Amino acid sequence: MKRRPFVATAGVFGTAAGAGCLSTITGDDGGPSFEIQDVQVYQPDDRTVFVAPTVTKLDSGSGHLHLRAELLFVNTYDHSHEQQFEVRAKVDEYMYALPFRWESPFLDGKTYDARAKIVEGGDAGWVEANETVSAAPETDDGNRSESD
For residue range 45-55, what is the model confidence (pLDDT) as tens digits? Predict the structure, then answer.
């Protein structure tokens, strides 16, 4: 076999296989696009925070959604959490909760901001939460039943 045609053929197959692997790694599966509409923060106690972005699907079909949330603390280091979700074709808008949990009462007396973004091929912009959170646990028991 002549070397030049073999190398050219191997290069074509390698490029095609590499592009397929790259689309698998980056999640570029031709699925729908997403947009964050709003970000809310829930702090049920001094060890737990949920950053909850409301995400709208811009196209039809099912796909993958990769979210990143950050808690930005005043006078201490920040925390981040990434999570991937499967989005069904029937869902157009959904609120996803990204949890932050500590073993000890880490949040006591701390103030922080929260933000979230969709992690895609490029660096999408951050969507900030509506308010700065002072680390007092939620006191609204309206969603609890009387038997608790």
Answer: 989 999 999 99
